[in-house]
Amino acid sequence: MGQKGDKFLRDSALNLLVAGRDSMSAGLSWFFWLVATHPSVESKILEEMKGSFASKEADWRSVLGMNEVSKLVYLHAAICESLRLFPPVPYLHVCAINPDILPSGHRINPNTKLYYSLYAMGRMEETWGEDCLEFKPERWISEEGGIKHIPSYKFIAFSTGPRSCLGKETTMIEMKMVATAVLWNYQIKVVESHSVSPNVSVVLHMEHGLKVRLTKRFV
């Protein structure tokens, strides 16, 4: 491939790693904030962990394998619900190559850029129901107790179609491993009077960061 080709691949990989790092840190910040401000959700996550880890060794590091965290259905649902409300990438754009007609009936010309808001789409009542603004992990759990399949064009945090994020599964596993390590060991309390609001940019970070107090948890 040559030096130029090698440099292109190396630079592309580094850019993907940086983008993934930023988006994952933003996603986890919103997740921990939502869990900290919804005690009932935190309790359900901990109960699920206790049930899954009861037969494991006392050292929590022994339960952070891929197989173990994949069994945490409620935790998975809580992370999906957090990503629905606060997608790390709040908006995207596509560009038409040829003339086209949107499902709405609008005609678009070649080279027309279309911007769409993932943040807004995750909060639409006609898509998610009257409780669309509530943090409700239960909406992701089926009657059988598994994860309910929700198509990517509805849950669009990882984009959809040919543009779907290739690292979706890896990202979910990593988020669950970090969430498990933190919540199993610490109770998170948001600092009183700390203002939490989105900083609208390419990545949906918190405007003033997330200030919390950590208390060692004994479970």
Automatic annotation (TrEMBL):
InterPro entries: Cyt_P450, Cyt_P450_CS, Cyt_P450_E_grp-I, Cyt_P450_sf. The keyword Ubl conjugation does not apply. One of its GO terms (biological process) is lipid metabolic process. GO terms for molecular function: heme binding; iron ion binding; monooxygenase activity; oxidoreductase activity, acting on paired donors, with incorporation or reduction of molecular oxygen. Heme binds at residue 165. It holds the Pfam family p450. The keyword Cell inner membrane does not apply. Its cofactor is heme. Keywords: Heme, Iron, Metal-binding, Monooxygenase, Oxidoreductase. It comes from the Eukaryota. SUPFAM superfamilies: Cytochrome P450. Belongs to the cytochrome P450 family. This is Cytochrome P450 family protein. It comes from Quillaja saponaria (Soap bark tree).
